[in-house]
Write a structure and sequence with these properties.
The chain is of the alpha+beta class and about 200 residues long. Helices cover about 30% and strands about 30% of the residues.
């Protein structure tokens, strides 16, 4: 199940199809959050930063949502580039993605925000993400304030809560093999609108 075969060498425009196949298998085998991915950015000094986020959609890129006033949001807005990594331990597989980043439309952000649990929407208003907090009580107080403010009706999306789409120019599919002779299937293209070149890499 974990070995790449010649049948995995899909047409050059199909790395997304292979990703979707792998994600479906991960959804069946991973005990928690098969859509978890490590998101890497850099700050203004060129210092790398990485954290786990959740993939929320795949179309022309890989979509996730966050507070744009958070550290990752500020770093994304400054460079508009990112890398993500999926690691599925149960399948002994990982997928690496690199490329430019774009903001999703307001409509997309609104639709996804509306689909979240109500308490999560309240939390998006209450949390000043990535900024110093005096105490846990300060967060709990903010949650109480916004829960009262939006006690009736829908909870609107905060203007700073948005989605980003990583549009890959590089996708690497890695499969664990004995003696560290791993399989690496790589798709590359010069720009998000270009055609893919497909290669195998040495492990």
């Amino acid at each position: 199940m974990n070995q790449l075969t010649d049948g995995d060498l899909l047409p050059e425009n199909e790395p997304f199809g292979l990703f979707q196949n792998w994600m479906k298998e991960a959804e069946k085998s991973e005990p928690n959050d098969p859509n978890a991915m490590a998101l890497a950015t850099v700050d203004n000094d060129g210092m790398p930063d990485v954290r786990m986020v959740l993939l929320k959609g795949v179309d022309t890129g890989f979509v996730f949502y966050t507070n744009r006033e958070s550290r990752k949001g500020r770093e994304l807005d400054a460079s508009m580039k990112a890398s993500v990594n999926f690691h599925w331990k149960s399948l002994r597989r990982q997928v690496r993605v690199r490329g430019p980043v774009e903001q999703v439309t307001d409509r997309e952000s609104d639709e996804y925000f509306a689909s979240r649990p109500r308490d999560s929407r309240i939390g998006a208003w209450a949390s000043q993400q990535s900024r110093p907090m005096d105490s846990r009580f300060a967060l709990e107080k903010a949650v109480t304030i916004y829960a009262a403010k939006y006690a009736i009706g829908e909870v609107p999306r905060p203007p700073y809560w948005i989605g980003y789409r990583v549009k890959p120019i590089y996708m690497e599919f890695w499969t664990d093999k004995p003696f560290r002779l791993h399989e690496r299937l790589v798709y590359r293209r010069p720009a998000p609108q270009g055609g893919w070149k497909q290669d195998r890499f040495f492990p």
